[in-house]
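#structure-requests
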Amino acid sequence: MSMYCLLAMQTTGGAGLLAGALPFIFLFAILYFIMILPQQRRQKKWTAMLDALKTGDKVVTSGGLRGTIIALKDDSLHLRVPPDNLRIEVTKASVTQVTTTDEEVKPKAS
């Protein structure tokens, strides 16, 4: 082969590599915006909800237990579960939803 032919193959090799990698970069960008970014937003929202827990809040756990928080610890909380007012301890990570609304907390003015 001539020197010109080798030089031409070397210069087009870099452009071919970039053109071959471009679909993968595009696919990763789409996956990031469709899957990863929304998951990170949900995680931040859930962490903020856990940090804002206080006694008296009504919560639902991942196991489906509904109860009222009566005590908070570092990584767990105590719930009062109706109808027998059972007191159980669950981890904070098992709380999926806070069902207390602002209207329930405020006393009704007559």
